[in-house]
Design brief:
The chain is α+β, with helices and mostly antiparallel strands. It contains seven helices and 16 strands. It has a seven-stranded mixed beta sheet with strand order 3-4-5-6-7-8-9, sandwiched between helices. Strands 11-10-12-16-14 form a five-stranded mixed beta sheet, covered by helices on one side. The chain has a two-stranded antiparallel sheet with strand order 1-2.
Length: 269
């Protein structure tokens, strides 16, 4: 079995390979969109990325199961015994892909004993990859080079203004109504769920509140990156997110927080 460093490199390779192919499709506009049973969109590019990633991971790690948004995943009774598995979102931000906003990403995480221990997120239109492995820090590699990333250290955690990452597709008032009126905020609108998490991880935003249905594949890779950058991801009640422990693979509403010196429970209602 490859060690964790080798598995991280494999995930990065798979993310970039799929992302480059997705970008070609994105630039050409040659894709077809469908509506899944849950009314969420999917495209031929999602399926293509899923096939590229699964083929590469299965070739090099045939003994590690794969859970993906675009696969028919096993019921809980069959997957509950998994000690380790890949967790994939072939395109996070399919609506943004279709809308040609550029705000979409390829997500690959590795979960061990119900905890994400590797996270890789590739942003094709920016040629930027975020990655982390447990205990080794979080990093960003872009055309400007490679750097270790950290959440923003707020000068006065009790009083300073906060930067809130919000969804481009949701009314900002919905999220901002969850924020305490005792602080001042600025907002930063983005598309992909995982890219907003990465903005918290690299200090461009302080908090991201996600309201609405997401899957475990939307947070697995992000959670490893955010935590290694000094932040945290939890559900709306500040309880830990769970992985592969419920019949449903849907997440509850969740919160991505940066500087942990901030009393987030007093800020988010």
């Amino acid at each position: 079995m490859p060690d964790r460093e080798a598995l991280l490199e494999l995930a990065k390779q798979a993310c970039i390979k799929a992302g480059k192919q997705v970008l070609e499709v994105y630039d050409s506009g040659d894709f077809t969109s469908f509506c899944k049973d849950d009314n969420s969109p999917v495209t031929t590019a999602d399926y293509m990325a899923n096939e590229i990633i699964c083929e590469l991971l299965q070739k090099h790690t045939p003994d590690i199961p794969i859970m993906s948004e675009e696969n028919s995943n096993e019921p809980l009774k069959k997957r509950l015994h998994w000690k380790q598995y890949w967790l994939i979102d072939p395109i996070d931000g399919t609506k943004e892909f279709i809308a040609q906003s550029g705000h979409f990403a390829i997500n690959i995480g590795l979960v061990e004993d119900h905890e994400p221990v590797i996270g890789v997120i590739y942003w094709p239109t920016a040629d930027t990859i975020y990655f982390a492995s447990k205990g080794n820090g979080a990093f960003k590699q872009s055309p400007q080079g490679k750097e270790q990333i950290h959440v923003r250290q707020i000068s006065d955690p009790q009083q300073d203004d906060l930067i809130v990452a919000i969804s481009r597709e949701q009314p900002p008032e919905r999220v901002m109504s969850k924020m305490s009126s005792t602080r001042q905020y600025s907002t930063l609108a983005l598309g992909s769920c995982s890219l907003k998490s990465c903005y918290v991880a690299e200090g461009k935003a302080d908090v991201f509140v996600r309201l609405g249905i997401t899957g475990e594949w939307d947070t697995g890779a992000s959670q490893c990156i955010v935590c290694e950058a000094g932040g945290n991801i939890a559900d709306i009640n500040f309880e830990p997110l769970t992985y592969n422990q419920r019949d449903s693979l849907n997440n509850p509403d969740f919160i991505v927080t940066g500087d942990q010196r901030v009393n987030w429970q007093s800020i988010i209602k």
